[in-house]
Amino acid sequence: MILESRSIDPVTGNTILETEEETKECQNQTLLLTEKLNEELTLFSQMAEKQKEELQTVTAKWNLAEEERAHFLEKQQSFKTEMEEFAATLGQVERLMDM
């Protein structure tokens, strides 16, 4: 009746209804896919934030290890210099004792 009151023949009316149903189905699918995409993006964002924090932690540990290594190398060089001085002093003492 609605089709007749609007002067739409039944074949065209059925086509319009089918098209409308397809459009609604497409909209529903689009909505579902959009929601799923938003969920995945939220999850990705959370994972990226966690990895960023982990990277910052690892970077801080790496920097600390580099500082400790530099300090160790300074101590090692100081020890080496001191040993060379002791060896030189020992050599002088041995020469003096040989006299």
Descriptive keywords:
99 residues; mainly alpha
Task: Provide a brief overview of the structure.
Helices cover 94% and strands 0% of the residues.
Report on this structure.
By secondary structure, the chain is an all-alpha fold. It has one domain (2-98). Helix content is 94%, strand content 0%. The protein has two helices and no strands.
* Overall 3D form: rod-shaped
Distance between the termini: 134 Å
Count of distinct structural domains: 1
Gyration radius over CA = 41 Å
By helix and strand content, what is the structural category? mainly alpha
Order of helices and strands: HH
The total count of strands amounts to 0
Strand content: under 5%
Biggest sheet, in brief?
Answer: none
Low-confidence stretches: none
Helix content: over 70%
The average pLDDT score comes to 90
SSE topology:
Elements: H1 2-5, H2 10-98
